[in-house]
Every structure is written in structure tokens, then in C-alpha cells.
Amino acid sequence: MDNNQINFNEIPKYPSRFSLRNRLGRLAWLICYWLLFKPFGPPFFNKWRIFVLRCFGAKIGKGSIVYSSATIWAPWNLEIGKRVCIGPKVNCYNPILLKIGNKVTVSQGTYLCGGGHDITSIILPFISAPIIIKDYAWICANSFVKMGVTIGEGAIVGATASVFKDVDDWTVVGGNPAKYIKDRKITNNR
To answer: Is the Cβ–Cβ distance between 90 and 71 less than 8 Å?
Structure first.
């Protein structure tokens, strides 16, 4: 056999990446998402949306907002602190823990990607790692945050940035891939 050819019969078979319990939970969540979460778009339904998420195991702090157009893949893997905003059309792909601190804003169109595939293997097995966003951070519009990344306290991820590495506390990053731009200094000017 040529070195460039692959014998697919020799590739090991892996079990399904999710348990039956997880699949049934996802099915129940999808039904409730489309019937009880997504249709209730006006802001005065925010408490209802938070209630629905909590019924599926999400831990959500007081004063937080989750827009109806946001997609939450697995509410039982979601922890949100106090006064957090998950903006319109945010996609939280969280097959594993997605932990967001207090007073964090995740702006519209952001994709928080907690899973992917191992490209070092020919069979591309599914892999996942938690995403942690610490207090006072701001993830600006249309950004991408990769699995296993920690966004530091007070950090700002600029609009359309793609974050593949941890972001230090109180820094501003931007670009694709995201790079350090400057330190974030807070003044008391109002």
C-alpha cells in the first residue's frame, strides 16, 4: 500500500461522543428552546427566558439578560454571574462548561466555541474544553472565542477578533488572530 493511502478498515471505531442521557436532554432542550425560549423576544420576557434556562440547569446570577435570539447549546453547562448581558445572535456552543463572571457583556453575533475536532488524528475525534470569561470583560460584536480560552478580568476583545489564546487581565486585544493592543486603564470620569 502506498504511504499516501489510508486503510479505513484499520481506523479504530469510537463510541458516540454523547451519552443517551445527554442526547435526550438536548432533544428536550431544543423543543423547549423553540417553543418556550425563542418566541419570547421582547425585553419584558427576559425573566421568563432566565427561568426556562434555569429549569434546564443553567446557573444565572441576578440582573442578567439573555436575548431570545441567542443560541445556548447546553444550558446545564452554563454558569453566568450577576449583571451579565448575552446579546442578540450570540452562539454559545457549550458541550462543556461555559463560565461567565459578573458584569460581563458578550455582544451581538459572538461565537463562543467550546468544542471542535482533533486535527492531529485522521478520524478527527470530537474534543472540548471550557471557556472562562472573568468579571468586567467585554467581548465585542462578531468575535470568535475558541475552546479552552480564558478571557481575563476587565479584558476587552475587539469587534470581529478571533481569540485562540488566553487574554490577560485588563488588556485590549483585536484582530485575527487576536493580538495585544494595549492595557485597559480605568478612570473615574463619567
So the answer is: yes
